[in-house]
Design a protein that fits this description.
Length: about 55
Amino acid sequence: MDKQKYIYWQDEDMFLGYLEEYPDYWTQGISLEELKQNLLDLYHEFSSNNIPSVC
């Protein structure tokens, strides 16, 4: 897997962030580790080319 840059910050007791390549798709986590896992999941969805379309 390629290295991906991401932006994150803490807002009260949640961590928010997004992949630098996909700034419109934010995710969150209770901990920084959970946020990183959610960002990794997003990356896998986007790189799989198997994103469901909206009807």
